């Protein structure tokens, strides 16, 4: 179920720079061509021994609440902002994560969901939530047809709306690549603004991955501007700072 637990700086999205504990869950039904975590799905579970040390101990099973909660108590730090449930796709384990997040909230911690939004029916309340809005170009279209994509996109909007209505501090994130067009992302911004014009859209230039390249400065800025037509200044560029810092 869990592939790793570690403490680091939030490297993406609206809360970039904040101290987090990340709980990464295994497995994902999607296969985004840029995904930098896909290979972790078949790793044995590893848990950081000392907060931020990057020194891990392998565990066979952290599925028990007391074990995971114990681990969090051991690696939490005074600057801890929130605990992220990520993956893979964490909502594959929605019931278990609901249990964990209720315990963590009772212990005074904030929770953060990092999800691809494909399971709106599995959405529960999280203090913070990031829904990664996928674009058609994020998939190898040999196994991802237009009908399947439209269903995914609509589910992502439903997940954002559900989290918004639950009172979660929810934001959208969209990875843009070298050839992503402003029109494509503008549609995302328009659809988000129909849910709530105070929802932040994070434009995340892809970190180079295999032969996938980042967008030019001009393209990035053009994309942000057209999104601003719908979301005003609720548009921010966030690129994976943990990679620049050489951190997990
Ligand atoms: C690994 S996914 C796990 C959570 C969830 N499945 C999702 O897609 O949001 C976490 C985030 O990593 C980001 N990501 C993965 N690979 C990336 C890359 N090469 N460049 C930029 N962001 C990337 C995506 O924005 C994604 O939201
Ligand atoms: N530092 C750091 N920040 C992150 N924000 C989202 C991440 C993810 O993989 O879900 C991530 C990650 O893997 N590392
Ligand atoms: S949905 Fe998230 S975990 Fe799954 S392949 Fe895409 S980026 Fe990776
Ligand atoms: Mg990551």
Automatic annotation (TrEMBL):
Pathway: Purine metabolism; 7-cyano-7-deazaguanine biosynthesis. [4Fe-4S] cluster binds at residues 28, 32, 35. Pfam families: Radical_SAM. The keyword Iron applies. GO terms for molecular function: 4 iron, 4 sulfur cluster binding; carbon-nitrogen lyase activity; magnesium ion binding; S-adenosyl-L-methionine binding. Homodimer. This is 7-carboxy-7-deazaguanine synthase. It comes from Methanococcus aeolicus (strain ATCC BAA-1280 / DSM 17508 / OCM 812 / Nankai-3).
